[in-house]
Amino acid sequence: MADQEVLLTREFNAPRELVFKVWTEAEHFGKWWGPKGFTLEVSKMDARPGGMFLGCQKSPDGMSMWGKFVYREVIKPEKLVFVQSFSDEQGNTIRAPFNPNWPLEIINILTFEEADGKTTVTFSGGPINASEEEMAAFNAMKPMVKQGFAGTFEQLDQYLASQQ
């Protein structure tokens, strides 16, 4: 999967326990996740293997998109593995509204490492069970996906600063 994934590493000026907490608790996650200017309403967040996150993002112009994570691994405070998909309000997997060939499932693997009170988050992710058309759509959008996550991590950085 290495050539088909997005890989980002970012250091945050916060302890690992706090960084992990804001990734796994609804009252924190909804305040920083997503593109700049978007809001996130968390409908459900059960960060345990087999558990699910379900939420609705709203763009500045009012467009709504539902999404879900199904957690595979939750090793506090070291690692999170989840499969991310677009969904309806009930959590049923649907096609992305912006591209009919977008992969239905993307696996995300996050590791959290602490040194000197700072936490390095390594994020990798890519399509699973994807067709050739879905892989092509993902690869074409990889630069935008990376840019989107960089912005999300910027919001996380600001949020963490407000929590200390």
Automatic annotation (TrEMBL):
Residues annotated as domain Activator of Hsp90 ATPase homologue 1/2-like C-terminal: 13-160
Domain of life assignment: Bacteria
Pfam families membership: AHSA1 (PF08327)
Protein family (similarity comment): Belongs to the AHA1 family.
Name of the protein described by the UniProt record: SRPBCC domain-containing protein
Organism: Cohnella rhizosphaerae
Upper lineage: Bacteria, Bacillati, Bacillota, Bacilli, Bacillales
